[in-house]
TrEMBL record:
It comes from the Bacteria. PANTHER family: 4-HYDROXY-4-METHYL-2-OXOGLUTARATE ALDOLASE 3-RELATED. It comes from Bradyrhizobium cytisi. This is Putative 4-hydroxy-4-methyl-2-oxoglutarate aldolase. Pfam families: RraA-like. Its cofactor is Mg(2+); a divalent metal cation. The keyword Magnesium applies. Substrate binds at R153. GO terms for molecular function: metal ion binding.
């Protein structure tokens, strides 16, 4: 079992709400994808789906307070939040909406990754949806981590092993609330729909089309083989420009 799959199993727990529906991909595919960091998956995507070279991944820097955590691979749970304006719903309706949101997060294909867009525009991150409580609740609901352009807080009290990529870190939650969930969101340049397959680590995140997911591990290995002769000479005390040219030629011949 890989580090990523052990992380998944630890996070799912035994609560009934985390019983996951059969995913569209075998667990073995997700485990294989979790063996590679996100930049390597991006490299593999350039081989398998070159038409996606400019789309499908985060293009703006996100804060990662836990860079040593392994990559996470899971199905998206999408949410739109805001914090500058107070919710217009009555208290009873807000409570009902919160339960519906948690039911959405805690069911469906698993494991899951929360993807949250802050729709406050230039004020995105004004209030933090994520902190000690939400990280622990979402971990219990079967999520492996969160990707958001909003803010997070309570870093020392954060749920252990729960990954986070965020637009900023801030102290207050202001009027933060979920405006909607289950729709299309856009976070740091990456457009995500509910149930999209997400791969993420400290570098950022990428959406993996389901029909090519199983091809990416082999492509990732090919990328590694092509890099090996270049890295070997670059790290060698006998490095020379002529040897680099030869290494580049050998790299180009690897298929």
């Amino acid at each position: 079992m890989t580090a990523a799959s052990r992380q998944s199993a630890a996070n799912l727990g035994d609560n009934a709400v985390t019983n996951t529906a059969t995913g569209p991909l075998p667990a073995s595919v997700l485990e294989a994808l979790g063996r590679y960091d996100t930049p390597t998956i991006c490299n593999a995507m350039e081989i398998v789906a070159p038409e996606r070279r400019l789309i499908g991944y985060t293009t703006k820097q996100l804060v990662c307070p836990f860079p040593d955590l392994p990559p996470i691979v899971g199905y998206a749970r999408t949410v739109a939040i805001r914090s500058v304006l107070k919710s217009s719903l009555p208290a009873e309706e807000q409570s009902k909406r919160r339960i519906e949101y948690y039911e959405y997060v805690g069911t469906g294909h698993g494991p899951r990754v929360s993807v949250i867009q802050d729709i406050d525009g230039p004020d995105a991150g004004y209030g933090a949806f994520w902190g000690e409580v939400q990280s622990n609740v979402h971990k219990a609901l079967g999520c492996l981590g969160v990707i958001t352009d909003g803010s997070i807080r309570d870093i020392p009290q954060w749920a252990p092993g729960f990954q986070a990529l965020a637009g900023s870190i801030g102290p207050s939650h202001a009027w933060v609330h979920a405006e909607s969930f289950g729709g299309e969101v856009r976070v740091a340049g990456m457009t995500v729909k509910s149930d999209d397959l997400i791969h993420a680590d400290q570098h950022g995140a990428i959406v993996i089309p389901l029909d090519i997911a199983a091809k990416l591990p082999e492509a990732a290995e090919l990328c590694g083989r092509r890099e090996t002769p270049i890295l070997e000479i670059a790290r060698s005390p006998d490095f020379s420009l002529e040897k680099l040219k030869a290494a580049l030629k050998r790299s180009a011949e690897i298929h």
